[in-house]
Write a structure and sequence with these properties.
single chain; 364 residues; alpha+beta; Phosphorylase Kinase, domain 1; Aminoglycoside 3'-phosphotransferase, Chain: A, domain 2; 2 domains; two-stranded antiparallel sheet; 10 strands; globular; binds 2-acetamido-2-deoxy-1-O-phosphono-alpha-D-glucopyranose; binds magnesium ion
């Protein structure tokens, strides 16, 4: 069976047979593979779930189903219009399952495609404000999710201590023999290690709570409509308990960077203060009501932490020989590492200012 016939046969596990169905690659995710599917009746997103990374696909899909049903019920209760564009809709298989497992061992899911939507890799302060409100609202809506806490789809996903343990193990093993050329970067990481593990300490002391978080608040995980109003938060694979400073920080890492996540030209990279301010004020508008003072005081730190964490993750993958993230060229993970480091330095240089902006936004 060729690739196209294979994809079609997977799609027909979820929808009725359709001779005219068209399937095209979609998006830029580093982990899953996505396709846009157009049938006679509707448009969908088909995704192959990377089960080497998400090892419990059934629990993962159950999480997404719980989260989307909860949000849908809230939107219905407040009489929102066009709900199908404001929350993801999972399409079950003909057998009623939330995913399909192929004989090859690959796992697939299908969702409705959100019509006339777009995402941005680069935004402006006003869009950042709207995105901030949307992620604040997302956390707020999930704060009363009934039942057990969500399943941790990747254990210790944003746990800096655990990330550093694996980093150090990779440095020690030096599997790909790449360590010699990158020793200074190892030092930069170690120099900041203690500071960056602070949230785990505060959690153990019982002063920093875990809340239901998105855990992948990249700027392009927000969909906007034709008038640049926020429609929907997407990519729900990692919605699970975490620190709010993580979600705040990951947006800043991606949305408030004047360069790209993998910019080869480090001069392009710095923190955009106006975007930072836009996001902080939008986020705090919706989140100030439930955040503790300690959480608010650590939001700007979250921007440093998530940038550092991403640097450590890309770097670990580079040292391991590129086994986790998709890469487009041989030293892509090293380029990403250096780009994240440059952003981290800019966040450090501007930290007092970032902190002032957050505290000012929290007062408004
Ligand atoms: C991955 O696949 P994508 O692009 O949504 C990663 C995130 C990283 C991000 C870096 C499950 O997200 O944690 O922050 O790449 N997702 C997973 O761009 O590891
Ligand atoms: Mg993701």
């Amino acid at each position: 069976m060729n690739d196209s016939d294979r994809l079609k046969s997977i799609v027909f596990q979820f929808i009725n047979h359709d001779d005219k169905v068209e399937i095209k690659p979609l998006g830029k995710g580093h982990i899953n593979d996505s396709y846009k599917v157009a049938s006679k009746e509707n448009e969908y997103v088909l995704q192959r779930i990377n089960h080497h990374i998400f090892r419990n696909v059934s629990e993962l899909q159950q999480n997404i189903s719980r989260v989307t049903s909860h949000i849908r019920a809230k939107l219905e209760a407040r009489g929102a219009s066009e709900i199908d564009r404001k929350v993801l809709t999972l399409i079950p298989t003909h057998d009623g399952a939330l995913y399909y497992k192929e004989d090859s061992g690959d796992y697939w899911r299908l969702m409705d495609y959100i019509k006339e939507s777009k995402s941005y890799d680069e935004i402006n302060p006003e869009l950042a404000y709207r995105a901030g409100m949307a992620f604040g609202e997302f956390q707020k809506m999930l704060s009363d999710l009934p039942g057990d806490p969500l399943f941790e789809t990747i254990p210790d996903f944003h746990n800096m201590e655990v990330r550093l343990d694996s980093f150090r193990a990779s440095v020690k093993a030096n599997k790909a023999g790449r360590l010699n050329e990158v020793k200074e970067l190892v030092k930069e990481i170690e120099d900041r290690a203690e500071e960056m593990c602070k949230p785990e300490k505060m959690y153990r002391e019982g002063i920093l709570p875990k809340r239901t978080n998105h855990c992948d608040t990249k700027v392009n995980n927000i969909l906007f409509d034709e008038n640049d109003q926020v429609l929907c938060v997407v990519d729900l694979d990692t919605v699970m308990p975490g620190y709010v400073l993580s979600d705040f920080g990951d947006f800043i890492r991606t949305g408030a960077n004047t360069g790209a996540e993998d910019d080869k030209n480090l001069d392009n990279i710095s923190v955009d203060l106006a975007i930072f301010e836009g996001y902080a004020s939008g986020y705090l508008k919706n989140a100030a009501s439930f955040l503790t003072g300690l959480e608010t005081e650590h939001l700007a730190f979250g921007a440093k932490l998530l940038t550092y964490m991403q640097m450590v993750r890309f770097f670990t993958d580079y040292i391991d020989g590129d086994t986790y993230y998709k890469i487009a060229y041989p030293d892509h993970n090293l380029v990403r590492t250096k780009a994240q480091f440059k952003l981290l330095q800019s966040l450090e240089e501007n930290f007092d200012q970032l902190q002032r902006i957050v505290l000012k936004s929290a007062r408004n």
